[in-house]
Amino acid sequence: MAYDRISNFEGVYKSLHLPAVIIGGTFVLIALALSTILILEHLRAYTNPAEQKWIIGVLFMVPVYATESIMSLWNSKFSMVYDILRNCYEAFALYSFWCYLVACLGGEDRVVELLETAAREEISEQLLKEEDDEAQHRHSLNDFVFHPTVLGKDLYTIIKFGIVQYMILKTLCAFLALLLELFGVYGDGEFKWYYGYPYVTIIINFSQMWALYCLVQFYNVSHSILQAIKPLSKFISFKAIVFATWWQGVGIALVCYVGILPKWGKIQNGIQDFLICIEMAIAAIAHVYVFSAEHYKYLPVSGCGKITSVESKTKSKLVENAKSGPATVEQKETNVEAPGTRIMESVQDVVLGGGEHVVKDVALTISQAIEPVEKSVTKFQDTIHHISAGSDKGKNPEVEVDERVTENFVDLKSEFSSEMKVRV
């Protein structure tokens, strides 16, 4: 009976596969067109590299997801390889979004300075309410959860570690899943202890939740300063892609596991890929408004470029001595149109500058993760050394002394000589 049911679903899958590819491909074309135009606009008006290189990194998430999904939907044999590409770029996109927020605040040094200032103000307010001075300066997990501001520069270190660790673990787990799949022990969608899928899912889920929570905490302590870029809309549009697509895949796997849909890899992957194709078109439309390049097309008046002015007139009524009359209020806003930049130069800065930044942060995070292990190993070695040294002190060394006395007679005179040997 189960075989007949799978056969029926297989027939339905074959009949719906071509229409699904056509519909999904249409949405993918919309997503690719909108994202490509928006990325080219940023590359053409590349006036703020510190921010725009990371915006482009976030925007590329839509083309990567859309292309991977439609190719996987068209040919499910390579779905595992496409998943690796998608998972790796998802982690990088989360890192890019966080770097974008940091760049909007003025860079890492400026962020640390702002966090330290906020921490001093928060601690001062708490000291006015409570008398226990020492307790306010002992940082703990509760501070990160309930009072993250008091951590100061340590908060930046914790958040940075949380974001980068996800990028590292996500990439490693993606390649681990491919390796397990080659040996036939991954079991995609199978929640069984002898398969690798549930363990990889738990690791990625914990890592992702921790990274997103760190991002939420960073938003909470900086949203008032970031009001100029409207961070909430950007945060929601990005988090919806990362969070929804992951849990969407887990939900489909659970639905198949409980028997609502058959445990057939093509159906699970096909539903996920088809939904992502549609979602990426929606995400591309949202990005056009959320990550618009219009802001970067103009420079301050002191810069160079084509000066444009916008003039608006508003009519209102002025009341004076019980007499009203129309009045016109004129308002002029002057902007300088930025000169266009060469796309190749912009691409070079995005790739080289962004790549150097990523390598630096990954190396720093790995060293921070290894440092506690090195300290533990060093402490363990010191403990073993002290124990062995203490045992040696408890033993009294045995000393043996051999003394030899000789007498020589030379010309009726006797001479004595002694020789002593000490053995420990």
UniProtKB/TrEMBL annotation:
Signal peptide: none annotated. The chain crosses the membrane at residues 20-40, 52-74, 167-187, 199-219, 240-260, 272-291. It holds the Pfam family Solute_trans_a. Keywords: Membrane, Transmembrane, Transmembrane helix. It comes from the Eukaryota. It is a multi-pass membrane protein. GO terms for cellular component: membrane. It is found in: Membrane. The keyword Magnesium does not apply. InterPro entries: Ostalpha/TMEM184C (IPR005178). PANTHER family: ORGANIC SOLUTE TRANSPORTER-RELATED. This is Protein LAZ1 homolog 2. It comes from Musa troglodytarum (fe'i banana). The lineage of its organism: Eukaryota, Viridiplantae, Streptophyta, Embryophyta, Tracheophyta.
